[in-house]
Amino acid sequence: MENKIALHFEGLLHSYSQLFFAKSKWYGLFLILTSFINPNIGIAGLSAVLLTNLIADISSLNSTYLKDGLFGFCSSMVGMGLGAFFEINLFFIVLLIITSLLSLLLTLGFQGLLSKYQLPYLSFPFLICFWLILLAARFFTQLHNSTDYLISNTAFYDFINGINHTHLPEIMITFFRSLGSIFFQSNVLVGILIAIGLFFYSRISISLAILGFASAYLFYSIAGIKTSDLNELFVGSNYILTAIAIGGFFIIPNIYSYLTVIIIIPLVALIHYGLGNILGVFYLPAYTISFTLTTLLFLYLLKWRLQIKYLHPVTVQYSSPEKNLYHFLANSYNYRYSKYYPVSLPFMSEWLVSQGHNGKITHLGDWSKAFDFIILDDELKSYQSHGDSLEDYYCYGKPVLAPGDGYIVNVSDNIDDNLIADVNIKDNWGNSIIIDHKNGLYSQLSHLKKLSFKVKTGDYVKRGDLIASCGNSGRSPEPHLHFQLQLSNEIGAKTLDYPIGSYILRSNDKYELKTFEKPKEGEFISNAEINLLMKKAFNLIPGAKLNWEWKGEKESWEVFTDEWNRTYIYCKEKKTIAWFANDGVVFRFSDFEGNRSTFLYHFFVGCNKVFLGYYQDLELKENYPITFKNNILFGYIQDITAPFFQVVKAEYSLKYISASGINQSDKIELESISVSRINNIKLKTIICKISIAEKGFNEFIIIDGTKKSIAKCLDVS
To answer: Is the Cβ–Cβ distance between 251 and 312 less than 8 Å?
Structure first.
């Protein structure tokens, strides 16, 4: 029973907040209270939503839709319209019940009709339902037109009337009355209250509402339309709702979505006045038809694009322009390399890039995007002794590894190695292997040693498998390994400009992790060596469970995968989610949703990007598009400017402090620092000290400003 009450209570609140494309209990409650400035309207709207949701529940319809207010928001408008136009009597109650059912049926019908095109039904159910009421009303002799209660309440009427005629600029008064008319109350007080609530819920939404209305006001002035028309019921509201819908709810808010709002407002006006004349023949007001049609047709147009540019549709709806934007930025940043198949270096230990992309010797023209590798000693020589024989060269005969999983599709293994300083121009590439990585990508390894091949055409290899040895065949005056990526299975095909998935760069005896970058000529690089203890700690596979204690409370985590095959940690006590990815080399969080005062959030911040190897004093640095736990003022500034540029920036660094061993350890200490700043002004700093032991995570020390807390990992399973 308690669950049912909670379900209907949330459904009621969300039905009101959905009117402004919001999903907020506090904003829904605020709007309900605002609607009661006219009690008849407030009572009728509230009753209509309760009735619609009750019918939906009895009919065993989708409880999530009920909870989210998707069944009730059109019904709230129908109810408020009835309360605005007609007196409440016995027949009014009967009609309210009938129209609540009709509103639900129309909602289901439009949802079924438009969902196959992945389009929203918007206010279509309200429009059809209320038009039918107006057409039928003259036949209902027991339905009486309403007399505004404010007339009999002189003091309050004078107060409302005084606000309506306050000495504010006309455009402001008209804007607030347009907002209020969404509740069938075209007065300034209701509009001001709605605007205040909308500002605290979404700075982007209120900015779009102002932009949409201001654009309409300007267009009316240019077109010679009386701006006083905007005061009429729902006329100005159409521009406000269209701006919020297109500028930030269904489209990721950015400068192009804001420009689109300005461009599309005249179309809303054209549809409003054109259809208004047609509907006038039947004595029907246009209400929200221009907003609904414009938004629907524009979203449908976007689906026909061959390439998504400038305007990005919201794929996962968080019911907040800010959340939609921040999740989009976080995912775009964290998955910016997802289009690449992660290719590894095709060798063990450390080698030198003797010739990189656009090299001056042989990496020219269509074959410029390739790498040549050799091994140097401490004296920066590639050979021992006099270097007269092949065996003198450090890289000669060294293992060559598969850079990724795939099938061997082309092999050349019949070319003798050259003597030192000789070249074989006829067989330019020498002994070579082509691997098809089964995603349109091929890798070529050349100048291999004759008869060293461990594979043949048709064999399947995995990343790191031994496939041959480094040689000196083909156009190769001294032993080296040639490596290139391409789009063909032919030996010697045109090269492809393509990064290496991850590798370690050594410079001045300091190590740096590189991800999806292209090694430069003269750099000493190696594959990243994974530390077994780090690998075990961050091996959070679906089904894994971790229990923590922090600030006297327990947090129980479990790992799941969602419908998009994204892996995430879920905390059942706090109902928070942190999405992550682990490619075996780097563990990286991609997104977070929920309470930011939880330990899971601090874990998300402190372990945002973790390399699973251990190199003493290695430091990871990252700029990520999230803002964390800033004060309200800076948070609001960020929200307002976020569609255009990022005022508040967040930086992350992770230092590898100590370990009992390099590859095999029983204890590792890490320290991360996360900073948010405006230019050089630091707003927030969070330091996390991570201790990892044989069982996995041991403890997690958090220093948030002057506050210090310790989280203990109780068990891992």
So the answer is: yes
CB 241 within 8 A of CB 205: no
On the question of pLDDT at 149 being above 70, the answer is: no
Cross-strand partners of 434:
410, 444
304: how many CB neighbours lie within 10 A of its CB? 6
Domain 158-334 has CATH 3.90.320.10: no
The residues that bridge with 407 in the sheet, in sequence order, are 436, 460
Q: Got the DSSP string for 265-276? A: HHHHHHHHHHHH
Domain ranges in the chain?
1-148, 158-334, 350-526, 532-716
Domain at 350-526, CATH class: mainly beta
Q: Say how far apart CA 549 and CA 654 lie, in whole Å.
A: 23
Q: Which residue has the tokens 């300034």?
A: 188
| pLDDT tens digits, 605-621 | 999 999 999 988 888 98
> What does the pLDDT look like over 665-683, one tens digit per residue?
789 999 999 998 888 888 8
Q: Which two tokens stand for residue 593?
A: 């949703």
Q: Which CATH number fits domain 1-148: 3.40.190.10, 1.10.3430.10, 1.10.10.10, 3.40.50.620?
A: 1.10.3430.10
Q: Where does 364-499 show beta strands of DSSP type E?
A: 370-374, 399-401, 406-412, 431-436, 442-448, 460-461, 466-469, 481-486
Q: pLDDT grade, residue 146 (50/70/90)?
A: confident
Q: How far apart are CA 366 and CA 488, in angstroms?
A: 13
pLDDT > 80? residue 286: yes
Identify the helix (H) or strand (E) that includes residue 624: strand 619-624
pTM, whole model, 2 decimals? 0.86
d(CA 570, CA 555): 10
Task: State the Cα–Cα distance between residues 4 and 21, nearest whole angstrom.
Answer: 24
pLDDT (0 to 100) of residue 151: 46
Confidence at residue 162, expressed as pLDDT on a 0 to 100 scale: 62
What is the C-alpha separation between 490 and 134, in angstroms, rounded? 73
Kindly state the average pLDDT of the residues 217-244.
94
